[in-house]
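request received
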Amino acid sequence: MSLPYLSVVVPLYNEEESVGPLVDLVRESLGEEYAWELVLVDDGSVDGTVEVTSLLAAADDRIRVVPLARNYGQTHAMQAGFDHARGRVVVSMDGDLQNDPRDIPRLLEKLAEGFDLVAGYRVARQDKMITRRIPSWVANGLIRHITGVSIRDNGCSLKAYRRELLDRVYLYSDMHRFIPAVAVALAGARIAEIPVRHHARQFGKSKYGLSRIFQVLSDLLVITMIRSFRDQPLALFAMGASGAAFLGIVFTLWTGAAFLEIVSWRAADMFVLPGAALLWFGLAVYLLMLGLIGETVLREERGRDPEPLPLVHESTP
Amino acid sequence: MTTTESAASIVASATTHEVHVSVLVPVVQRAAPPAALYAEYSAPLRAAGVAYEFVFIASPWRADMHESLLELTRAGEPVRVLEGGQPMAEGALVRLAAERSRGTLVVTLPAYRRVEAPAIVDLLARVEAGADLAVARRWPRTDSWVNRAQNRALHALIGGMARHRVHDVASGVAAMPRDFLLRLPLYGDFLRFLPLLAVREGYRVEEVEAPQHPEDRSARIYSPGIYLRRLLDILGLVFLVRFMEKPLRFFGMLGSISGLLGMLVLAIGAVERLVGEQGLADRPLLLFGVLLVVVGVQAIALGLIGEIIVHLNARRTPTYRVRKDSQHSA
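response:
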């Protein structure tokens, strides 16, 4: 059996009602124009999703099921789908019918213009304002500002990727929210955006909420660190150490000024000011040592398992 | 790490028949006389017609125990006696024993009596029926209220922090395929958390109610050091289960709390200095605030180092497991 050109990856968690209509829509949208496969990743559903997907796969050999052993979360489900996808182009989308498979051909057209990743952004969103849209605006603004990757809608799962890009990116933790930023950071991907349709959830419950914003902040710090310092952790920690050392110097000067009676000097100052200066200097040394540990780990790991080289874009005609 | 196998055990090993079940007995503290333990727990296996071996392992052996086991091997019983080359925790002993065991299935059995012996056969039946891991749950509990209170507190703590519910992590009696045991990251004192680790890896874990052994009923009060070790084990488990892939969320949370508290303390001191004209440089408050900020930064920096390690290993370590039993799986 020849390999498909396009793999559509759909992570599913308790979507027994949605998955049937979703498969019909994908069939209708893609028709026979491309050789395609649909990779349905069951993320440890506890409803009848596995049974429904198995029946669908039995009836159509373009449908493949990847049943995960437990509920790992969307990032891992998506990575499992990418690992099992065989197409030269991969499209990811949600399984809750909020994305519209009719947008897939437009994503592929844009990808053919020479991009490595084409991200959809939802127009006329059908979500609740307070709990979904406002947190989404805040999160997208933070992601744009902190990562420097200007994507309007990081929360939209409808995206198209070249295989070469996915071979260079590995998703873990909760990175599905930052795929464009990760793709730029790890592979130097060229990214484009197109508007896509959005439908209100028809079945089941939303698995997202306001609380995610706090996790986004922590993850953003990690992405930024990976992007800026993944090859030079010592530089990251040296920056922190410089700040701590600067504060140590300030407190030392303060101590000196007090000793020379330029500022008021009391008996207790002999303990408090030098003590604070020592704490800052101690922190500086500690951070430098951590940076050295980071460098050691990096050299050790890179020696054992070299990271894939980033993508190369040739502009000569 | 080296492991020596008693020469006598080789003579008595089950080479004459294919071993189906290996019962692994790590001998650490509180060990019952091993010959009596063997007699009691091998009886139901023999009655069920199971081809078995018992693998006793210690590091090092107490002379009297070692001798009594060697007597069993000399008598032709399917008993093997292993000795770790270095002092090791229970988890490492079980792993070593599993590596040298011959059975397709293994049973872990503490070197003291926890459950009635026939429970082993029930556990094996569950594994034969498809469970990846069958663990004995001592039920109904007939032991002292002290034990039950401790047990309840332990499970409340584990259930709340690790977000998984197992009713009896301390029973230590479990059956599983040998390959499964060797696949799990088993080390230190994590043997008791085997069911939780297995659930985390997506394996099918079943609890089987097993009558509590009369010898397990007496009240047990441990030294403070043991309770401290258990707390550290739980902390390690929680980190493993919840923050292994995102260490910054754990260290960042602690660091942020400490750092924000420190900044609050410093802000209070600064306001008092500016408004109340109370000195700042001569007050321990300044030192305390700086200390909290420094500790906060240290914790966050540790989290970042953790993230670097996770990032570098992510591609190599599988972060999900696919079930193989689905009819149309990819």
